[in-house]
Write a structure and sequence with these properties.
Rossmann fold, binds S-adenosylmethionine, 46% helix, alpha/beta
Length: 229
């Protein structure tokens, strides 16, 4: 009798988790069909024009999905370039009610990114800074719940160490051009360890982070912060 009751309760809980949680999550997302159309149009028209070391579309979509799935609101990007990844990140934030700070050191690329953000209709969700991230990352207070590192690879580990205390528990640190050792050992030649590889080894050594690598595009490491230490 008691077992049947427990079974029923367990079944109801399972139904709730399977059906109601996604509904609750999607309901908390802000709908803006006109903005969606503007962003899609901009991305379609420019899909073959990302020449400035920009992420491929599959990686942009990956960052978008991570933000939506976790309802992240406070994002930081290191390495704006002309804004392709920034557009995917900010598009997701326009739905969660968040904002992106993105940092670029090159004035020409920064200006182009600002123009692209405007054309995509996403300017209000982006604070684009023209600065050296080595310095600015130290000054930013955070806290952040989503970080995308895509600037100077040899500094990846330093960026992570600086930002770890500013990343919320439950937050996610992602980095681009990070390859898994298991997928052919890219990034390690003749005993030389690339900045990305050094970073990956470091973050994987931390017990409070859970890290996977998505190899479908340019290689994205995804590190979830499970606890403060
Ligand atoms: C790979 S690109 C970024 C691509 C961009 N995330 C996208 O997908 O559109 C790297 C950018 O980082 C910038 N960068 C390199 N070192 C930097 C630094 N110390 N501070 C800020 N930006 C830096 C470069 O100028 C370059 O535009």
């Amino acid at each position: 009798m008691k077992n049947t009751f427990l079974c029923r309760m367990w079944f109801i809980l399972l139904l709730f988790t399977l059906f109601l949680t996604p509904v609750a999550n999607s309901q908390s997302l802000k709908e803006n069909p006109a903005l969606d159309e503007q962003v899609r149009k901009f991305l379609n028209e420019n899909s073959r024009r990302w020449y400035d070391m920009n992420v491929p579309e599959v990686d942009g979509k990956l960052l978008y999905d991570i933000i939506i799935k976790n309802n992240y609101k406070s994002a930081l990007e290191i390495g704006t370039s002309t804004g392709h990844s920034g557009i995917w990140i900010a598009w997701a934030l326009s739905k969660t009610g968040g904002k992106l700070i993105t940092i670029e050191i090159d004035e020409g690329r920064h200006r182009q990114a600002v123009e692209n953000f405007k054309k995509a209709g996403l300017s209000e969700y982006i604070d684009a800074r023209l600065a050296d991230a080595h310095q600015l990352v130290k000054e930013l207070k955070g806290p952040f719940d989503f970080i995308f590192s895509d600037a100077d690879k040899e500094w990846y580990k330093n960026y992570f160490i600086e930002l770890d205390p500013k990343l919320k528990v439950g937050g996610c640190f992602t980095a681009h051009n990070v390859y898994d050792y298991g997928s052919g050992g890219r990034g390690s030649r003749g005993g030389f360890r690339s900045g990305q590889q050094e970073f990956l080894e470091y973050v994987r050594s931390l017990p409070n982070y859970e890290t996977t690598v998505d190899n479908r595009g340019g290689g994205v490491s995804i590190s979830y912060k499970k606890s403060s230490r």
